[in-house]
Write a structure and sequence with these properties.
The structure holds two protein chains of two kinds.
Chain A: H1 13-42, H2 46-56, H3 59-86, H4 91-117
Helix pairs in contact in A: 1-2, 1-3, 3-4
Chain B: E1 5-13, E2 17-25, H1 32-43, E3 62-65, E4 68-71, H2 77-80, E5 86-90, E6 97-99, E7 102-103, H3 106-114, H4 137-145, H5 153-157, H6 159-163, H7 170-180, H8 188-195, H9 209-213, H10 220-236
Parallel strand pairs in B: 1-5
Antiparallel strand pairs in B: 1-2, 3-4, 3-5, 6-7
Helix pairs in contact in B: 3-7, 4-7, 7-8, 7-10, 8-10
Classes of the chains: A mainly alpha, B alpha+beta.
The complex binds iron/sulfur cluster (SF4) (2 copies) and FE2/S2 (inorganic) cluster.
């Protein structure tokens, strides 16, 4: 049998951009409810909020938050890239959107990381 | 000096089958189609494959070479064979395999007709020539996709075709877009209606695997984006 999934024809930049967009979307769909639930704990009263803030200042939680922001940023720039394609970006322009999207997404994630650990 | 040999694995069978390895002497300027022809002429007369023009015009020789869809008559072995001298040749994907390297392209071309890929004339032979300005935006959009040779490389590369067997696919949609930009054609609205359905242009995920692999450097992704805009506009205006 030939393998039904063969990655050799998919190793191009536009496919990676698609994958980043799709996987960040799926990850957001999984993690955002969790995030909102955690935020929901904060409005249960001052005591709960205090406990929550203590919890949220742990490095691991901060790292997870940074991951969430990074996912959001990459998903946002990926979406803008698809819009650019649908508006008619092609050739060098289409390739530039891939690089720009990933660069801007990573920059936003990095800025957030520096912010939370400052 | 001993001849340098290539190890060429060729798909034998249909949907079920296996790769069979053949030793083929390496030559200067050899194409992948040369490898297949060598095997068929010297080693395995029963091998089935297709080609016609050998110069990149007819679109019949496309196969999957080392995992990527390619026109084999214009693909030099030097570009695909690694240092280990191995080449893997399989039929295109997303179409039924008839035998060995020959696919049934009927589903592919049926979709061209479903996408109304046929010119709908508006004039008769007694009318004068239609003036089409080469620099017009419409003509340039048509020109960008017009050199398609119908090789199905894009169709073979497209994930959405694999996920949804009804999806019209990059080549048929690219064809529809060139006709949509032909001022002499009289079926623009009907064509937009034909390509705007669930399995039409809006199903495209913009992976650009089609664009990446098209040997004629056409961007079906761009053509499909044009159809998305045109059909959305037509729907807003209540035309489709
Ligand atoms: S851009 Fe659209 S047509 Fe081209 S490979 Fe991707 S999904 Fe298929
Ligand atoms: S668009 Fe390109 S890859 Fe697709 S059938 Fe036409 S020439 Fe082949
Ligand atoms: S044989 Fe005609 S395109 Fe390759």
């Amino acid at each position: 049998m030939r393998p039904s999934i063969d990655l050799r024809g998919r190793g191009h930049a536009a496919y990676w951009a698609f994958l980043i967009h799709r996987l960040s979307g799926v990850a957001l769909a999984l993690f955002l409810p969790l995030h909102f639930w955690a935020l929901g704990q904060a409005i249960q009263g001052p005591q709960a909020l205090g406990g929550f803030l203590d919890w949220a200042s742990q490095p691991l939680v901060k790292a997870a938050e940074t991951g969430l922001v990074l996912l959001l940023a990459l998903h946002l720039t990926g979406g803008l890239r698809v819009l650019a394609l649908e508006a008619g970006a092609a050739g060098a322009m289409a390739r530039a959107t891939i690089l720009a999207g990933v660069a801007v997404g990573l920059t936003i994630g990095l800025m957030f990381l520096l912010g939370v650990f400052a | 000096m001993a001849e340098e040999m290539l190890e060429v694995s060729v798909w034998r069978g249909a949907a079920e089958g296996r790769f069979v390895a053949y030793a083929v002497p390496r030559r200067a300027n050899q194409t992948v189609l040369d490898l297949v022809s060598h095997i068929q002429q010297r080693l395995e007369p029963g091998l089935s494959y297709r080609f016609a023009c050998r110069v990149g015009m007819c679109g019949s020789c496309a196969m999957t070479v080392n995992g990527k869809p390619r026109w084999t008559c214009r693909t030099h072995v030097a570009r695909v064979a690694g240092a280990d001298g191995r080449v893997e040749i399989a039929p295109l994907r997303n179409m039924p395999v008839i035998k060995d390297l020959a696919c049934d392209l009927a589903p592919f071309f049926d979709k061209w007709s479903r996408a109304r890929g046929r010119f709908a004339p508006t004039q008769t032979r007694t009318d004068d020539f239609a003036p089409v300005a080469p620099a017009s935006i419409q003509r340039q959009a048509a020109d960008a996709g017009i050199e398609c040779i119908g090789c199905a490389v894009c169709y073979s590369a497209c994930d959405v075709v694999a996920w949804n067997p009804d999806y019209l696919g990059p080549a048929a949609l690219n064809r529809a877009w060139t006709l949509h930009n032909d001022a002499r054609d009289g079926a623009h609205t009907a064509r937009l209606a034909a390509v705007a359905g669930d399995a039409g242009c809006h199903a495209c995920h913009s992976h650009q695997s089609c664009t990446e692999h098209c040997p004629k450097q056409i961007s079906p992704t761009l053509s499909i984006a044009g159809l998305k805009r045109a059909s959305a506009l037509a729907a807003l205006k209540g035309e489709i």
